[in-house]
Amino acid sequence: MNKILCLLVLVTAIGCKDRYKLPVDVPSTGYLVVDGTINAGSGSTSITLSRTSRLVDTFNINYVKDATVTVEGEDNSVMSLYYTGELGQYENPQLTLNPAVKYRLRIQSSEGKEYLSSYLNVQKSPPIDNLVWDRDDAGVNVYADAHGTAETSGFYRWDYRETWEYHSAFVPNLKLNQVPLAEYIFPNQMGDASKFYCWSNANSTRIEILSTAKLAVDTAHYSVIKIPRASAKLSVLYSALIRQYAISKECFEYLARMKKNTEQTGSLFDAQPSELKGNITCTTDPNEPVIGFIEITETFSKRIFIRNSEVPGWGYSLGCLQQSVLNHPDSIAGGGVPTIPDIISPSGDIVRAFMTSLDCVDCTARGGSTTKPDFWP
Amino acid sequence: MTRQFLLIGLLCSLSVFGFSQNTLPRISVKVEGADIETFVASLEKESKYYFYYDKIQFDSIRFNVNAENLALDKVLDLAFANTEFRYSVIPGETYILLTKSVKINTELPGDFFVRGARDTSKLALPEYGDRKEIKIDASIENKVFNIGIKTNAGTGGKAILAGYIRDAKTGEPIPGVSIFTGSGSIGTLTDQYGYYSLNLPKGRHIINVQALGMKDTKRQLIMFSDGKFDIAMEERIVSLKEVIVSAQKLNNIRSPQMGMDRLNIKTIKQVPALFGESDILRVILTLPGVKTAGEASTGFNVRGGSTDQNLILFNDATIYNPSHFFGFFSAFNPDVVKDVELYKSTVPAKYGGRLSSVLDISSREGNKKKITGSAGLGIVTSRFNIEGPLIKDKTSFILGARATYANWLLNLLPQEYKNSKAGFYDGNLQISHQFSQKSSLYLNGYYSRDRFSLNSDTTFGYSNRNFSVKFKHAFNNKWSSSIVAGYDGYEYKIASEKDKINAHELKFDIQQLNFKADFTHYLNANHTIEFGASTINYKLNPGSYQPKNPESLIVPDVLQSEHAQESALYLSDKWNVTPDLSIQAGVRYSLFNFLGPKDINSYAPGLPKTEDNITGSTSYASGKNIKTYQGPEYRLGIRYSLTQSFSIKAGYNSSRQYIHMLSNTTAISPTDIWKLSDPNIRPQYGDQVSLGFYKNFKNNTIETSLEVYYKRIKDYLDYKSGAELVMNHTIETDVINTKGKAYGIEMMVKKPTGKLNGWVSYTYSRILLKMDDPNAGEVINGGKFYPANYDKPHDLTVVSNYRFTHRFSVSLTASYSTGRPITVPIGRYYYGGSQRAMFADRNSERIPDYFRTDISMNLDGNHKVHQKTHNSWTFGLYNLTGRRNPYSVYFVSENGAINGYRLSIFGSVIPFVNYTVRF
């Protein structure tokens, strides 16, 4: 559509563009965004509180600190979630909820605003039966298999945390000194493997939901994760911890709409977006929108590992090359880091050294950490 | 008028010839501005002749005569030249008779005793001067015609008078001519073929005939029995100030039809148009209750209807995309269009298939007498038309064509757009043949094509193709029929070839075959019955996505074609209950069959139609009836005249629509697709009640009207959030059925004639939709009514034209409307691991209000009737105030912030000039 508009402008050569100021005045403090679920099963409950930012401002996540977050039961029970001190996360390591009682979430902000969810039933979730994966032209798909019972809603949501091991291309035994010249890292000329093994993490970024309502039997076989072909994630060993929980039909519809509004891929047509109404309201100002749909549900998680050897011809390439360079400050200053000597003079001096780029020898330059996670085999 | 003077001058000279054998005294007279008494006194004094005349007849004439020693008859010739006054010299007597119009024969014709009383016309009072044509036609207003077979059976009972009304010059039939008896109690309008039928009591009548742009005329006749009576009308070339009464003045009061507007091409051409080219749809947009979908768009909304709820007919052919060049121009060549009728409330029962309105555009018939044509040159387009007889007075053709040459404009653009191209062309051809007075055949063809590309990257193109054959037959004075068969097609293509890997072509097309038979029965003076049947066979290819070259890696994707048959039967009666009360009632029964071959998805009952809820798919064989929708549609219009110039009308209208346009944009855009109703998409149903008051002032020269309406719409299609419409295999999962209500009030003051003419219209209207069934899909705006994206409550339009002289006129139009609603993002947030946009309620914001003024000057060459070519120039300024009216509002991410921009297309004053030559 934009192309057409653009052409329209061109055709007339008289069209013009003006700033459009939104008639609605969105407060710079933003509206509350509540992300997370109340875990009725075993494990911690974590809720992230943030605020929307204005369109005109550069986007950053405005986390909400110093709020009071409690889970209240119809039986007058009150449990608190405590601020973890970072990333707007409020946590309780283990809530004890009675499945026969309805609960709601109360949030009091430091500015004195109060937000309340409606009273919610405790959702029963089915556990993950199995995590399986298969491979197609596009890459690897990881599926979650589950089956519901008469007590479960038939609506599923998944999120996950991926971890993968990856390696540098070379183990160097050279480094640059101040001159700069290539010199051995260790006097014994051994290679340095400290930046060779790395692990990276990523959280899910899309909303993964499924309805089995149309099925005669409530069984789920859902492709939660798609690893694109040749991705670095599967260059050595890949693992994902997939979390599954049942959600209510209302929550499903809310998330489905959010997904359409915001995960739409571009097309000729402009999307016709619509507003979202969750189950949280601001009691001090009922007209203030609140984003988020809170659910009380059991969460189940399961981990899967996939090795590079299981996906022959995966096609991952770091694209690292070494180039022989004269070990002279003028040549060395041309860029890159040395790996190993190429030509050594009879006296043992490095005449020429192989050079490469930093991320070929230092895996942390590609975002990961050299700390091996506890669960890693 | 000029011609009449010439004729009279000719007769005068003949009369001089005839009587110059009498020797009359030579006299000298000199008068200036003298009235008849003074003039005659001086003549009597000089000549010793006596003059007899009726003073009253001569009271308006003043004489300027300067004669020196001239014969008395020469003096009189001089004095009466170019007037309708005559003189008669009685041989052997010394008196002279002065008469108006009529010349008294003072002697018997020379052959009187020789041949007997063969030529009786000379004995009777002579007719007006128009003896050029022997044929009895126009301008014989004083002649009494005998209709039917003279009998002595007395004058009791009634008889039917029927015939055609044509243009005396071109032989073209004139529709919409008002024919009524002297008392005004019996009257009718000609149909689109200029045919009329009147049921008159036997006896003597004066029939008044009036049409817009034609000279009013009348006929005197005595009805003995049923008979045919054709009337030729002359075009009003020069409109005198005195001639104020014009046609259709009574139409708005007397017709039971309400919510109907008729514009003829002359009115349309007076309204200033973009780039100087008259635009039919743009003029339609100035009428009350009709709103534009956007500035550069010719899609329009009628009374809260969407753009696809208008049935646009061009010579009975359905036009799916009525615009060119993104809507800069409408698809109809103004040079071949005769007139335009828009029905927005009581739609006649013969039309159906769309909820909101019917826009019926008819083209002219070619000139049956001689070859004529015109050519027009504008900045961006030029047009040409030619028409003339193939067989004189029997067969004629009219051919019109238009083309653009906008590429030079594109070449003025910066280097990076050098390879852009845009253009369109269209052509019309109509051939009409008259077998006899009773039967005629019409062949109509229309083709239009648009093509535009940006930097040779993506090419957009679309095309309308229509062809129809119509046979019209009048069985007798009481029965007439019209049978039409035709093909209508529309297609669009979007192709991209720049990138070999991604080269693709996206196509959509719709084709329909129509057949329709209409019959009219003039039962008697009080009942005109119309009935008929129609059927349309649709074949629609919703989309195909194909690689454009062998290297392309695009995976071909073709959506299954759709087939359906839409049929209808109708019956309606126009009943004049009393002269003051008339009723037009009709019923139409429509039947829609969705046919195979097609795979139809089924969805779990009680759950929203989403891809998650598909339970299975059923394959149907070719031609198999998959789903039937049917139902009656009622059309009712009642008119009650309180006085001659004041009437009240009420109407009820219901209709069903089986084909829908799917578009996320408000305007008709080249990428819109159409969708037939199927088992998963119900037809739209709408009904409307309306009430109107019509009052004419100042001898019907000022027409005012006020109409109110309330409309309900069921199963109107709106879109789910983020709907994707192109190449969607399960389109039903992206649309939702909404309930709609529309209401409004429309006011109009119109002065159709005079030096200052034009109209002012104001409309207040709302269209609200509601989607509150959570089981059918997402609830929009909390299940409350929300405005449709073309809801524009206030709309004020002024169209005015001032004629300084007959050759120079200035037109000014102004329009104001509320900005249309949009859904806007109002913030961003982080949820589920991603940054997301937060939106306000659907259609809760509006783009800024729209206001525009245009002015144009029309300069005609001289008006001499007999010259090879007639030229005219149009100069004007579009968007006189240079206001930057927003066409759209969009949002872009810039340096991490999201900024809103409004895009104006005509954001400054645009001058234009257009030159037209007629030959």
Q: How does this model look, in words?
A:
- The complex is a heterodimer of chains A (377) and B (919).
- Chain A has 377 residues and is mainly beta.
- Helices cover 8% and strands 40% of the residues of chain A.
- Chain A is built from 3 helices and 25 strands.
- Chain A is elongated.
- Chain A starts with a helix and ends in a 21-residue tail after the last strand.
- Mean pLDDT of chain A is 84; it is low at 1-14 and 265-270.
- With 919 residues, chain B is mostly beta strands.
- In chain B, the strands form 13 sheets. Chain B has a 22-stranded antiparallel β-barrel. In chain B, strands 6-12-11-8-9 form a 5-stranded mixed beta sheet, with no helix packed on it.
- In chain B, a hairpin with a 3-residue loop joins strand 28 (439-454) and strand 29 (458-474).
- Chain B starts with a helix and ends with a strand.
- The interface between A and B is large, with 73 and 92 residues.
- Strand 1 of chain A pairs antiparallel with strand 56 (897-904) of chain B, so a sheet runs across the interface.
Question: What's this model, at a glance?
Answer:
Chain A is mostly beta strands and 377 residues long. Chain A contains 3 helices and 25 strands.
Number of helices of chain B: 8
**Amount of helix of chain A:** under 10%
Largest sheet of chain A: 11 strands, mixed
Low-confidence stretches of chain B: 1-21, 110-139, 238-250
Distance between the termini of chain A: 51 Å
